[in-house]
Amino acid sequence: MEETLMETDVLETITKDVEDSLVSEPIITATEDVLFQYPTLFSGRTLLELCNSSWSSSPKSKDVQPYLRGCKWSPDGTCCLSVVNNDGVHITELPRDLYSESATANRTIDVLDSVIHVKEAGLVYDFCWYPSMNSSIPETCCWLTTRQNAPIQMWDAFDGSLRCTYRGFNPVDEMEPAVTTAFTLDGARIIAGYKKVLRTFDVERPGRDCAEHKISFPASCLALDSNIIAVGSWNTTISLFNVNEMGTYKSIGKMHGHSGGVTHMKFTPDGLKLVSGARKDHRLLVWDIRYYRKPLNILNRIMDTNQRVYFDVSPCGKYLVTGGTDGILKVWDVDNVNWKSALDVTDVERDNVTFKFPLHKDCCNSVSIHPFRPILATGSGQYHIKDPIQDEDGTEINGLSEDLKYSCHPENSLVFWWIGDVPELPL
């Protein structure tokens, strides 16, 4: 990252000035022992584009599609980590004026360049930030990736160098890649999901030393909260485990409800609810982990792809935000639509979303809400199959492509949006 992120006053500036830029009806949140007021989101019902970054295919390799496959804000809010298909990992910095100032209607849209680009070969399965990442403490600035035919890798967020690896081996002593990985909340351990086992690594001891817990299903995604771990699987189930201080796993139970392999899960800030999504499943399921036998609520989004499509829950726990293959951003506000409450079987509409924003002309595959500021990062793109009824120059052959609908408008972009109040715009 640039030298600006190494200045010690970055987080102090964010914390101090965020108090001066609040809107009405704030929510009190505690972070790093400093009380501050979390801003109200979507109150103006308007999204203002702040900056963007995009990727396009190289003329020499037209078959390589560099579409975005996920984006996540850093825990300190200074930069955004994104994975691009066939183009590795990128870090994009938040413009410094957005650390403290509010957006204006006449603000110039910034075109952002990646400050760090790690050209990883192969398909990146999963990635995550170190939970205590702080730009003023360089040793905490790192992230994990797990990818095809490679061990879990820890990368330095200042220069993009490889710090260390964590390797899992199968019974015949062959190194196998993890499908999903995550830090524990205290950042002391790494939990990785494989085809038939969960492995726990000590962050301070890279290499192959780990504790193993056998499972009977392939792990596809993880969600952690305190001592509870949710493990999603390609077999459509979600398993809950309790982990004690010694790292021993105790099975709590399984949750059934999805029609496809589970691709993403997230706990609400209170740790009592779990939201899950699956591939080619138009439903987001909300679970109460205390009574997990059936979903507490069902929310709808358009999901016509096997690709992982991320959703996010705001740090205040009030908003659930997701994209979809139709490019529309959906927002549920718990004050207007109680998406945490029990399912109303008399609701024939079923799509009780609070807001809809048509942001992208391609699949909106990832959303990430800034930890301190009213800023939303969205990523777009998906794999596009070439129409077999067209010539190389794109012209139709005999006009037979009427029944084969292939998108001809790919959009591979990372966009930052202002989701707070804009003084110049009417409510």
Instruction: Please report the distance between the alpha carbons of the first and last residues.
Output: 37 Å
User: Unreliable stretches, pLDDT < 50, 5 or more residues?
Assistant: 2-33, 397-406
| Proportion of residues in extended strands | 35-45%
The total of helices stands at 1
As a whole number of angstroms, the C-alpha radius of gyration is 21 Å
Strand order of the largest sheet: 7-3-33-32-31
Roughly how much helix do the residues carry, as a percent range? under 10%
What does this structure look like?
By secondary structure, the chain is mainly beta. The protein has one domain: YVTN repeat-like/Quinoprotein amine dehydrogenase (Methylamine Dehydrogenase, Chain H). It is about 5% helix and about 40% strand. The chain has one helix and 33 strands. It has one helix at about 10-20; strands spanning about 25-30, 35-40, 50-55, 70-75, 80-85, 90-95, 110, 115-120, 125-130, 140-145, 150-155, 160-165, 170, 175, 180-185, 190-195, 195-200, 210-215, 220-225, 230-235, 235-245, 250-255, 260-265, 275-280, 285-290, 295-300, 310-315, 320, 330-335, 355-360, 365-370, 375-380, 415-420. A five-stranded mixed β-sheet has the order 7-3-33-32-31, with no helix packed on it. It is globular.
